Amino acid sequence: MTTARASSAVGTSSPTDTSSPTDTSSPTDTSPATGTTLVIGATGTTGSRVAVQLTAAGHMVKAAGRKAAPVAGAEPVRFDWYDPGTHATALDGVDRVYVVPPVGDPDPAAVVLPFLRRARAVGVRRAVLLSASSIPEGGPAVGLVHQALPGIFDEWAVLRPSWFMQNFTGSHMHAQSIRTDGIILTATGTGRIGFVDAEDIAAVAVHALTDVRAPNTDLVLTGPEVLGYDDIATVVTEVTGRPVIHHPLSYEELRDRLTALMPEEFAAMLAGMDQAIAEGAENRVTDSVQRVTGRPARGFRAVLKRELRHGN
To answer: Which of 82, 86, 135, 206 has CB atoms 3.0–4.6 Å from 139's, for a disulfide?
Structure first.
């Protein structure tokens, strides 16, 4: 099963790529940004990495989350999309913001757009939005935020990553089913995806937030190769030594499974994304990571080995 944030929301560098996860070098002018960056979702898959890379590069960061969890080198601040009372403190002293919309909300624009307008009114001048390769400007859910963003900020970017390589490690449902059952369940059939490393997404986000010139565009982010879930299962088997298979489901079967875990409307949207993959919608790679960061995107085998070394 896939998630919106994993497309969330699509390649490859050499398996021997050993670039540091905090490498933010760029062939363009990257004079240090002044002010402070608010990182929403600072303990999440991309937000945590964005916060780490920003602080490692010497930038000031406010790490926002519902529990204001400590993040090394950053100022923790409580933030809840559905509690506007937390927004003023989070925005105080901030001039840039990394925006991760509320996960699982079929209508994030209802809470994200008022926040972004408030941010602009209090002096935030640049916003970088996390969207998904599967959701175009003006499309459903975060696509409406994407559409409105250039009208709110003069400096902006929308990151549209493919499905995350980290879906197969850590606590994601794919990783859990791999560990417990040796199975990956999707409705993608033989469709292929340009899976992307969350570290690469974060590296692009850091540039988009801090480079002298904002991208002022959307960036579809993929890894260096397209892989089907059968390919993923093969690589996981080879790297871990544990047999893993891809078990295909129908759209209806996946939708019904997801409905037990989340609102029906969101489950149907996610199952629909899998169906789109089966029809070839994500069979592409881009050079966005290379163009923005100055280094190649990392390949899945290398990332899987790295994540396992780190205990993920």
So the answer is: 135
